[in-house]
Amino acid sequence: MKIGILSRNPSLYSTRRLVEAGRDRGHEVRVIDALRCYMDINARTSAIHYKGENLTGYDAIVPRIGASVTFYGTAVLRQFEMMGVYPLNESVAISRSRDKLRSMQLLSRKGIDMPRTGFANKPGDIPDLISMIGQPPLVLKLLEGTQGIGVVLAETSKAAESVLQAFMGLKANIMVQEFIKEAGGADIRCFVIGDRVIAAMKRQAPEGEFRSNLHRGGSASLVRITPEERAIAVKAARTMGLNVAGVDLLRSARGPLIMEVNSSPGLEGVETATGKDVAGAIIRFIEKNAHARVNKSRTRGKG
Ligand code: ADP
Is the CB of residue 248 below 6 angstroms from any atom belonging to ligand 1? Predict the structure, then answer.
């Protein structure tokens, strides 16, 4: 098969591993920088040109679209889809997963449990919003944040109120969330491919920190997940319409809570922590599904 990896940087671990795994299995694999793609959009044909060349003959595209280039990256992926190329994750699913609030709403509609979350527009509504979510401490999250940046723990309602007001004053979208204390600064990353969690790791925040992101100094280790955790992770990925997803969950007193569903989960942390060949599993999934054009975007057209 001819597989394109939509990635800005061929030397990134995830990109390198996908290229390697694809070539090992006898495929022609090429890294394509979405920002260097330009599109011919008209009623008769759809085409993508890349550094002067017309890109044709691709069977599948693996999108590795960074958060900062979501708009252009998903437009390029959509163009490939219009040309009949199989996307590992569909552009519409990536767009919806990039919006934290929209994701939470879609998950809640399916009865998937999550930390209780509130969102408001007017500073005047903040005190009531806070009391609606519950007792402090509370977690405040910037909608546009990634890698733990823009995630704040407010110890008191007053602190939560002033942080929310400050961000609203800066026109930033911020949500308030119930703090899951019993998670103990740890979360579980479930790597979902199709209907299976193929690897899972526990990420533990360093001492004195509640955010377990590896970019914030968290450490990763192999973890055994429960059947309930497995089922909720797969359901969350399916709800977002993602074939491949990194589903983050918190272990709470009332069971697993979904925190986030990531459409371009990194491979380095999970392959290192679990010793699993995740890149190879992704390529095998493409081999199985690209020709059948199986996609799971069951929420297609519904937001
Ligand atoms: P980002 O998308 O920036 O990584 P997250 O929502 O994943 O932001 O939050 C970063 C980290 O903070 C999580 O990995 C988790 O360890 C911790 N965290 C986030 N929300 C909560 C919460 N409601 N209760 C407890 N810990 C949380």
Answer: yes
Ligand 1 center to 22 CA (angstroms): 33
Q: Which of 117, 211, 249, 250 to mutate to test the pocket of ligand 1 (most atoms within 8 A of CB)?
A: 211
Spell 129-151 as b/e; 16+ CB within 10 A means b.
bbeebeeeebbbbbbebbebeeb
A 10 A CB-CB count for 222 gives 14
CB 244 within 8 Å of CB 282: yes
202 within ligand 1 shell (Cβ under 6 A): no
Q: Would you give per-residue pLDDT tens digits along the chain (303 residues)?
A: 999 999 999 999 999 999 999 999 999 999 999 999 999 999 888 899 999 999 999 999 999 999 889 999 999 999 999 999 999 999 999 999 999 899 999 999 999 999 999 999 888 999 999 999 999 999 999 887 777 788 999 999 999 999 999 998 888 889 999 999 999 999 999 999 999 999 999 999 999 899 998 888 899 999 999 999 999 999 999 999 999 999 999 999 999 999 999 999 999 999 999 999 999 999 999 999 998 654 444 333 334
List the domains of the chain with CATH numbers: 2-96 (3.40.50.20), 116-179 (3.30.1490.20), 182-289 (3.30.470.20)
Cα gap 272→17, rounded to integer Å:
12
